[in-house]
Amino acid sequence: MSYSIAITGKGGTGKTTIAALIVAALTRSGRRPVLAVDADPNACLDAALGVKVQNTVGRVREDARMLSSQHPDVSKRELLELKISESLVEGEDFDLIAMGRPEGPGGYCYANNVLREVLKEISENYPYVVIDNEAGLENLSRRIVRRVDALLVVGEPSRNGIATLRRIQALAEEMNIEYGKLIVVINRIYEMKDAFYSLMKEIGADEIILLPHDDEIRIWNEEGRSFFSIPENNAVYRKIHDAIVMPMA
Ligand SMILES: Nc1ncnc2c1ncn2[C@@H]1O[C@H](COP(=O)(O)OP(=O)(O)O)[C@@H](O)[C@H]1O
Ligand SMILES: [Mg+2]
């Protein structure tokens, strides 16, 4: 059984950054191999992990369809599985799979079902699975997974961000996804306010983690550097390592 964590939240809140830092902290603490899943069609988790995605699952689905007309003897499903396994990017202590967009005809529904099943099968080879999701809570639909061990929701420390976080449990229910624990992260905090602490008691999340704004993190992103090279004493990295990664089973 693998331990899975899905990172969700609005666009620009820091999902990809946090996902990459979790992968780095997992592998550095010997919890490997990790399967990193880029479930955001517009994301760049690959750059954050210092690798390059050549093929997304959405794209190889098209290849599999073409192949299947040439090889009517092989099942469509087998071809798709083969192609999907070819789209895995191998890193040092992790592999990355990018979902992309489901392309071409054939209906999203069939594709989504197959993707989800194949992802589930692939996941079984990894003790840890980290999923970077598309922006918007509603998008961590059952498209990608049905159940995760930890659902991590990232929000910003603005009035709006906090208002969203207050509704987090209701939103998590609406997402219709099962989770073992709910972790709320308030990211890019410039100044600690009492409101953040009182929020902790109010919203009934299993944990609330406060991450500071950090210029080193900003620079790493701006320069497209891999988060595997972030110094171990970086404040955001340390917090993620101690509060999110260490408690993982
Ligand atoms: N703790 C932080 N300190 C400083 N900048 C941050 C922090 N977290 C995220 N950022 C910046 O915020 C921007 C959005 O982050 P990103 O991880 O791409 O968000 P998302 O994946 O949710 O769209 C990036 O430019 C990144 O450098
Ligand atoms: Mg992102």
Report on the architecture of this protein.
This protein has 249 residues and is an alpha/beta fold. The model has no long low-confidence stretch (mean pLDDT 87). Helices cover 41% and strands 20% of the residues. An 8-stranded mixed beta sheet has the order 3-4-2-5-1-6-7-8, with helices on both faces. It has one domain (3-245): 3-Layer(aba) Sandwich (Rossmann fold). Helix 1 crosses helix 10 and helix 3 crosses helix 4 (76-86). Strand 3 and strand 4 (94-98) form a beta hairpin. It has helices spanning 15-28, 45-48, 57-70, 76-86, 108-123, 159-166, 168-174, 194-203, 215-222, 235-245, and strands at 3-9, 34-38, 89-90, 94-98, 128-132, 147-155, 178-189, 207-212. Bound molecules: adenosine-5'-diphosphate and magnesium ion. Magnesium ion (MG) is lined by residues 15-16, 40, 43.
Question: Helices and strands in order, then pairings?
Answer:
Blueprint: E1 3-9, H1 15-28, E2 34-38, H2 45-48, H3 57-70, H4 76-86, E3 89-90, E4 94-98, H5 108-123, E5 128-132, E6 147-155, H6 159-166, H7 168-174, E7 178-189, H8 194-203, E8 207-212, H9 215-222, H10 235-245
Parallel strand pairs: 1-5, 1-6, 2-4, 2-5, 6-7, 7-8
Antiparallel strand pairs: 3-4
Residues 15-16, 40, 43 line the site of magnesium ion.
The total of beta strands comes to: 8
Terminus-to-terminus distance: 11 Å
The CATH homologous superfamily is called P-loop containing nucleotide triphosphate hydrolases
CATH class: Alpha Beta
Judged by helices, strands and strand pairing, the structural class is alpha/beta
